[in-house]
Specification:
The protein has 307 residues and is α/β, with parallel strands linked by helices. 45% of the residues lie in helices and 14% in strands. The protein is built from 13 helices and 7 strands. It has helices spanning 3-14, 19-30, 68-71, 79-90, 128-144, 156-165, 169-176, 199-204, 214-223, 237-251, 253-259, 262-281, 303-306, and strands at residues 49-50, 56-60, 111-115, 150-153, 182-190, 227-234, 284-292. A 4-stranded mixed β-sheet has the order 1-3-2-4. It has a 3-stranded antiparallel β-sheet with strand order 5-7-6. Helix 11 packs across helix 12 (262-281).
Length: 307
């Protein structure tokens, strides 16, 4: 481990800036889930890990209550982590097909994994001040990864806060992009002018989240000196995804209620159904931007995108 990352990780683990998060992590470590009752929980802020010469960063919101907070490693100890590491293994980026604990010997190649927030927030709802406190750690991780080329944000809050805390986000892309390079930005957006998010979504699902309009994304792209060489608007695709998620949610109703409660299930069923409708009938779409530094980076026609 490099000296810079060693100092950074020590600072993260010792951080006490957010008393609410520290208290909640300690509570989880004492009141454990039944299947992990005999395990010793990590119970501290969870640092990023991986290849310090990484070209790829995978960015999440926060460690899971009984995942990263238990195992000491981001995206480790829950089903989403199982899926992620199996994919990384198949792509030749992970030495193991599953990640179980901070000391399981797993190594990543060309990949670095971290979270915007280093501690688990109650109900997965971080406060704005908590996100701001952790932004300095994320900023330093970015600066230390000298070979970084791509950031994949898993989840809307991770993307929103990466975008928010980096007002020079597209300037960073311009700096990292080779002269003949191509950057792809894939994000949920709105076809309407800028507006505040829905109050119910803000309160219960995505605190601090925001769905940008097209004008809000394109303006900073232009200011960064980048060229929008292609924009694709995926209108109905995500409604199909949300429908499948909703059906899986309903299919596993009994298990979800057992893990949480009836209120939790009903809220998520409502959220998935309403978002499916928003993408099918409302103003929600998925934008895919292709950014370059010059017009010769890509072919003249769009045919190559589908080849």
């Amino acid at each position: 481990m490099s000296i810079k990352f060693k100092k950074l990780n020590n600072s993260i683990i010792k951080c006490k800036k957010c008393p609410r998060l520290i208290k909640f992590s300690k509570k989880i470590s004492i009141i454990k889930r039944k299947q992990h009752i005999d395990e010793i929980y990590w119970g501290k802020p969870v640092v990023g890990f991986g290849d310090f010469k990484a070209k790829l960063m995978i960015l999440g919101l926060a460690p899971a209550a009984h995942g990263g907070t238990r195992t000491g490693r981001a995206f480790t100890g829950d089903k989403s982590g199982d899926f992620l590491f199996n994919c990384l293994y198949k792509a030749g980026l992970s030495s193991l097909s599953s990640s179980t604990h901070i000391n399981d010997g797993l190594k990543l190649k060309d990949t670095y994994i971290t979270n915007i927030l280093k501690c688990v927030p109650p109900e997965d709802k971080p406060l704005i001040d908590e996100l701001k406190n952790c932004s300095n750690f994320f900023d330093e991780e970015i600066r230390n990864l000298k070979n970084l080329k791509v950031i994949i944000c898993l989840g809307k809050i991770a993307f929103d806060n990466c975008f928010k805390f980096y007002k020079n986000f597209f300037k960073r892309i311009e700096k990292l992009l080779n002269n003949d390079g191509v950057s792809i930005i894939h994000t949920i957006g709105s076809v309407n002018p800028p507006r505040d998010p829905h109050p119910w979504i803000t309160k219960y699902i995505f605190p601090g989240g925001y769905t940008p309009s097209l004008s809000e994304v394109v303006t900073p792209v232009e200011k960064a000196g980048l060229i929008v060489s292609d924009i694709e608007v995926l209108k109905l695709h995500y409604s199909h995804t949300l429908r499948h998620w909703k059906n899986n949610c309903i299919k596993n109703k009994a298990q979800i209620i057992e893990m949480f409660d009836e209120k939790f299930f009903r809220m998520w069923e409502f959220y998935l159904a309403s978002c499916e409708s928003a993408f099918k009938w409302g103003d929600q779409v998925v934008y895919q931007f292709q950014l370059t530094k010059n017009y010769t980076s890509t072919p003249v026609t769009r045919d190559y995108i589908y080849d």
